[in-house]
Amino acid sequence: MRPEVMTTIANCGTLDQALRVRLALDSAGIPSFIPDESSATLAPHHFFTPSGVRIQVPDDRAEEARRVLADLSEPT
Q: Pairing mode, if any, of strands 6-12 and 53-58?
């Protein structure tokens, strides 16, 4: 079995923001991963940078995930 290739689709300023994005992706049926979750919990000050806390999804679901995120950012 080959490891799944993951793509970073968003960079959040805080772990809380990243968790909200993950919830939105999960509700759309898109698996996601926050590779920085443990580090951001223990040392959040290290993530106050432009790269922030990363959200990753399987490579083949990246475009779909970006559409979900675009829908989240549009006013209702």
A: antiparallel
Q: Render pLDDT for 18-76 as a digit per residue (tens, 0 to 9).
A: 999 999 999 999 999 998 876 766 665 555 556 788 899 999 999 999 999 998 776 55
3-state SS class at 1: coil
Q: What is the pTM of this model?
A: 0.78
Instruction: Report d(CA 61, CA 52) in Å as an integer.
Output: 21
Bridge partner residues of 70 (DSSP): none
Q: Give the range of the structural domain holding residue 26, as residue numbers without chain letter.
A: 6-73
What would the two tokens of residue 69 be?
Answer: 């995120």
Domain at 33, CATH number: 3.30.70
What amino acid occupies position 14? T
